[in-house]
Amino acid sequence: KLNKPVTKEFVFQNTSNQPVVIEFANAECGCTKPVYSQAPTVKGKSGTIKVTYNAEAVGVFKKRVDVKFAHSNQPYILTIEGEVVENLK
């Protein structure tokens, strides 16, 4: 097992007139973990969602995280993808 975590940070900006709240962020598998603030993001400010993928095997991966904001009917989909290669050292 590799167990090499890699993190990607997604940044969003609130351009609405009301605070933006993330209700949830769910990953499609246990090897991917989203982390986000529970605090509202006020107008004009930015927020982040950090998604960490824990590489368990060599090969190509594509993982999805569904993010649901309050006052939005549909979740937004974040995708991370890449390839885990063996360290040849």
General description of the model:
This protein is an all-beta fold. The chain has strands spanning 4-13, 22-27, 32-36, 46-55, 59-69, 76-84. It is elongated. The chain is built from no helices and 6 strands.
Spans of at least 5 consecutive residues with low confidence:
none
**What is the tally of beta strands?**
6
The major pleated sheet works out as: 3 strands, antiparallel
Structural class based on helices, strands and sheet pairing:
mainly beta
Shape: elongated
Q: Strand order of the main beta sheet, please?
A: 1-4-3
Count of DSSP-assigned helices: 0
Mean pLDDT: 91
Radius of gyration: 15 Å
Name the features:
single chain, 89 residues, mainly beta, three-stranded antiparallel sheet
What would a concise description of this structure say?
The protein is an all-beta fold and 89 residues long.
Task: Tell me the layout of helices and strands.
Elements lengths: L3 E10 L8 E6 L4 E5 L9 E10 L3 E11 L6 E9 L5
